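Quick bug: DUF1501 domain-containing protein output formatted oddly.
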Amino acid sequence: MLNIPLGRTRFCDGVSRRSFLRAGTFAFGATALTQADLLRAEAAQGGLPRTGHKAVINIFLGGGPPHQDMWDLKPDAPAEVRGEFRPISTKVAGIQIGETFPRIAAMADKFAFIRSIVGASGGHDAFQATTGWRQESLAPMGGRPSLGSVAARLQGNVDASVPPFVGLAETTQHGPWSDPGRSGFLGAAFGAFKPRGPDLANMVLNSSNRDQLPSRKELLTSFDQLRSGLERDGALKTADLHTARAMDVLLSSKLVDALDVSKESQKTRDRYGDGKPFQFQFDGAPTVNEQLLMARRLVEAGVRVVTLSYGRWDSHGKNFDLVRDHGPKLDQCLTALVEDLSVRGMLDDVTVIAWGEFGRTPKINGGAGRDHWPQVSCAILAGGGMKTGQVIGATNRLGEFATSRPTTFGEVFATLYHNLGLNPMTNMVNDPTGRPQHLADGVPMPELV
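Here's what came back:
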């Protein structure tokens, strides 16, 4: 919850501290006036809201998707490695992918497939897939910030009433799979906004909650009184501006509207699907196809980075049944998203990536499953003005290790930052000691940019 709590005492205008504001799930991760802090940071960077912007939609396939059953099939491997799926041809000559992704195959010219991601830590979490770094990097000072937090810090808001970083991940029993991306050493003010179900209704003034909120004028007047005597007149005017813009977020319906997919036509919603029934979820995320539609709407509203966790891919048992369930669902919503972005003229500005924390073992275990395999994994990307319709990297005949173009998480993130309009070689963020830190451990991938 975002609270703007000011205790129990009353000001001379009769507005009690307790009556200030309690607006539903607005979890930037900070306490009072978090959005105002963000706006001050934006002003410090000299940034102003814009009508057009670059964005990233980061789809985390929590649990570790099986690379050799998706984008890197091994039809010539022994039966205990190649599994049950056959490769199918795609729109791009020479590229084949798994049979559970026919729609992606038909749009392969819009996608880039990386088959050789290396350097996974082996942890069952989203950390590397949201930051590009290992968890131990700068851990004593809070750890590395995620892509969304960095974008919030360096680029600020596109629209004053919309947060720059939104995490849509449903709460999972295994908590690290629903991590939207940490703010690390940047601090909680730059964390993700995390919408949570019916509490969203409390974010805007409506007939049921209007009486619970004092007027905007009363709020701002009370803030002025709270700060009275603590700041000079010039500084106070600046604070008023930031506070007013922060209140825009709470009093605007723009963000809530973006999260409401019922405003889309039924035809559009049918193209994305709903991902139901949710199967193989266990302690992970459901296959909520509509979150990809929601992500597109959020970007249109002004969000710079959207993260979500899609499915539970930890296939120690029944790997092929899981891929038969998750694969076609992801195939449907991912192609609907890319098609939507293309039709709306947004594809060159919005980068889409789907990947997990590591790959799966080449050899199938006794439970028809595949176990953890940090040695190599995969990713699929689209948009962002990238060179698509290609495969990057390769693994050996058994899918054990990269044989060409090993690609690090740092290189992928350098590419994502580049696509956001940030230069990973020159743009930096200061850690708590004041020392500038690079955004990524790598350079943008020349194959893509």
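Actually, after a second look the formatting is fine. The chain has a mean pLDDT of 85. Closing.
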